[in-house]
Amino acid sequence: MGIFEFLIATVPVALFFSVPLYAIKRRSDQKDDRLKIDHIREQKELEQVRQENYLLENKQMRLELDKIKEERALKERNGQKKDRWLIEESKEREL
């Protein structure tokens, strides 16, 4: 009978202490889940900012490229006039 009495005394005590331990573990798991959710939200916001930044950089780079193309075209137009003038002058010198 000693084992039976021991089990009758031990089981309620184990159950009594297991409920709060389960609650503590569950609360800890919930906090971990909240932290993971917050981390995922932050990552999502960061990715959105990265995409916006990428689009802005591409737009800015496209504008700079268009500006460079316009400057180059303007230089070519002005340069062709000067080059022709230099060619005509060198032809006159040769004659």
Question: What does the model show?
Answer:
The protein is mostly helical. The radius of gyration is 40 Å and the shape is rod-shaped.
Topology:
Layout: H1 2-94
Coiled coil: 46-78
Transmembrane segments: 6-24
Keywords: Coiled coil, Membrane, Transmembrane, Transmembrane helix
Highlighted features:
single chain, 95 residues, mainly alpha, 1 helix, transmembrane helix, membrane, coiled coil, transmembrane
Q: Brief description of this entry?
A:
By secondary structure, the protein is mainly alpha-helical.
How many H/I helical runs? Answer: 1
Summed over residues and divided by their number, the pLDDT gives a mean of: 87
Helical percent range?
A: over 70%
**In total, how many beta strands?**
0
Q: Any low-confidence stretches, pLDDT <50, length ≥5?
A: none
DSSP strand content: under 5%
